[in-house]
Amino acid sequence: MKILLYLLAAIRAILVFGGMAVYMLVYGFSCIFVPHSKSRALNLRKHYLKFYCIPILNIKIDKVGDVLDTPALYVCNHRSFADPIVLCRYLKAFVIAKAEVMHYPIINKGAELTGVIWVNRQDQHSRTHTRSKMVQTIQEGFNILVYPEGTVGKEKHTLPFKKGTFMEAAANEITVVPVAIEFKSPKDMWVLEKFLPQYFYQFSKWKTEVKLTFGTPITHKSGESLHHQAYEWINGEVASMQKDWSQAFP
Question: Contact 73/175 with Cβ under 8 angstroms?
């Protein structure tokens, strides 16, 4: 039985990453006739996730709330490498991602094509540059998605949020939208160090169940207040999601 499940994960990997490569090739060819733009690339990613990637991985999403019609900063707790797959099914946004992902074949090219801002969390200059790029991107009319825990949370409660993003949002009068995500199975928590073993651990099961809630937009002149409100809401929503549902945190 376990062999069959790992075979399922392997077939899914071939289809998901092969399909990603095909999507990029077709998009590149289309740019001969229609110029590349950020909006086109974001639409490409949303189409790939909605109609191809998520069905193949058999991710079942219970979503509450909607994205805004105006550009905003979306902040979410971080559970799994699959988090952006789930969120970007609904949200067209530039994702702030750790620099290590730049070394993941195919994924890195897909991310760069469809909207990513790399950050080296250990480098102060990189973090400062990322916050500046975040503000610029939102002012240009695009959403930003960030995981302010700074790493994957494996505990029942949300990890403390880094404050820099919220301070920048307050200083530039940027709307913050808190987002909560929770997976049902303990296999969906990122518990292994390397991407490939985690992928096979996570997707060698038939179905992945996840809850996703977009919260009420927050605006405030105080970064501390933005930080506190977003954290408290997300932590409370995650606790509500876990109740009588989560197998990871029963």
Answer: yes
pLDDT of residue 108: 84
DSSP state of 158: P
Q: Where are the domains of the chain?
A: 2-242
Tokens 């590349």, residue?
A: 36
Which tokens hold the place of 81? 């490498």
What is the predicted pLDDT for the residue at 121?
75
The pLDDT of residue 107: 84
Rounded Cα–Cα distance for residues 204 and 218 (Å):
38
* Mean pLDDT for the stretch of residues 147-176: 94
Residues in the chain: 250
- Give the bridge partners for 208, in sequence order: 59
Has domain 2-242 been given CATH number 3.40.1130? yes
Angstrom CA distances, 227 to 9, 155, 166, 170, 231, stand at: 38, 20, 6, 10, 6
Nearest to 246 by CA among 189, 154, 158, 184: 184
Mean pLDDT of 235-249: 95
